[in-house]
Amino acid sequence: MVRQTGGVSVATSPERAVPRPVLADAVDLARAAVVELREGGVGAYLGVTSEDEFAATHRFAADLPGYRGWQWAVVVAAGPDDTRATISELALLPGPDALVAPEWLPWDQRIRPGDLSPGDLLAPPAQDPRLVPGYVANGDPEVDDVALELGLGRKKVMSLEGRLDAATRWSEGEFGPDSDMAKAAPSTCGLCGFYLPLAGSLHAAFGVCGNELSADGRVVHASYGCGAHSDTSLPLGAGSPAFDAYDDGAVEMSSTSASGTEDSGSVSTE
After folding, report:
1. DSSP assignment, residue 13?
2. CA atoms of 22 and 29, how far apart (whole Å)
3. What is the model's pLDDT at position 4?
4. Overall pTM surpassing 0.70 (yes/no)
5. What is the 3-state secondary structure (H, E, C) of 15-84?
6. Which Pfam families does this one have (predicted)?
7. Domain limits of the chain?
8. Rounded distance, CA 93 to CA 200, Å?
9. CB 187, CB 179: distance < 8 Å
10. How far apart are CA 3 and CA 246, in angstroms?
11. Running along the chain, 270 residues long, what does each successive block of 10 average in pLDDT?
12. Beta strand 41-52 pairing with 8-11
């Protein structure tokens, strides 16, 4: 809601009262404070809002390169019996349509697959739910069978949660059963001779492709497939003949007569 007080636009809300005239009329004082700051241009006056009975904020458009939509906010104050306001605070603040930087994220949350380069070190987060100590049963028979052999094996192994996360990514990824390649394939990886099943609890659903002309070295879903399946056969008539086709049109039949003998047929070819 906007009200007019002494020729000045006053922005109010149900929670805030209309600024006292001594505060609302201090537009020139507020503008002069920004100009004296000498930090940049001062644009159009945007209005005033009441902070409480003794303070109000005047706002001006900031005419600064790179600060589109930002505003100068000048807080003026006046006591109960004051006839003139004084400057209390001055700040450059983003407006409702201001161009601002994206929300900051810690570096470990900005890392994405493919960011790791040779020589980089990336430690797992503390208390990573994807990992459990190697001596703890994690539900994978391949690991649990040797988990209690002290002094052997790995310090940490993937937890059930970690395996489920990986299985979800692989199933929904490029080499999952719902990919375009899989939908157009004549058969599935689970029936392919190039399919190398994973060990452990992921054995039934995932393996590695061993065909260098397909998804070589990639983890593929057993229901994924491609045109390079080991049982793929060429369509009839494919390939090149060993010899040129015999042209019947090049054979010409003719009859000849020889002296003292009966006519006999002869064949000539061109």
Report:
1. B
2. 11
3. 40
4. no
5. CECCCCHHHHCCHHHHHHHHHHHCCCEEEEEEEEEEEECCEEEEEEEEECCCCCCEEEEEEEECCCCCCC
6. DUF3027
7. 2-94, 171-221
8. 57
9. no
10. 100
11. 41 62 90 87 90 93 88 92 90 87 82 77 78 69 57 72 93 93 91 90 92 92 92 66 65 66 50
12. parallel
> Residue 160: its pLDDT value, please?
87
Taking the C-alpha atoms of residue 67 and residue 60, their distance in angstroms, rounded to an integer, is: 13
Q: Where are the strands (E) in the chain, listed by range?
A: 2-5, 8-11, 41-52, 55-63, 70-77, 86-94, 131-133, 156-158, 195-197, 206-209, 219-221, 251-256, 264-269
- φ/ψ bin of 33: left (φ > 0), alpha (ψ from -120 to 50), beta (otherwise): alpha
- According to DSSP, residue 131 is labeled E
Distance CA(31)–CA(59), nearest Å, equals: 9
Residues in CB range of 216: below 8 A, 6 or more apart: 209, 210
DSSP state of 134: T
Output the six-digit token pair for 2: 């906007």
Report pLDDT for 28: 92
Give the number of C-alpha atoms closer than 13 A to the C-alpha of residue 250, restricted to the C-beta side.
5
Structure tokens at 180: 């375009």
Query: What sign results for the dihedral spanned by CA atoms 142, 143, 144, 148?
Result: positive
Three-state DSSP state, 165: helix
Query: Residues 56, 61, 64, 66: what is their CA dihedral angle, to the nearest 10 degrees?
Result: 100
User: How high is the pLDDT of residue 237?
Assistant: 60
User: What proportions of the chain, in percent to the nearest 5, are helix, strand and coil?
Assistant: 20, 30, 55
- Residue 30 CA, chain-centre distance (Å), reads 46
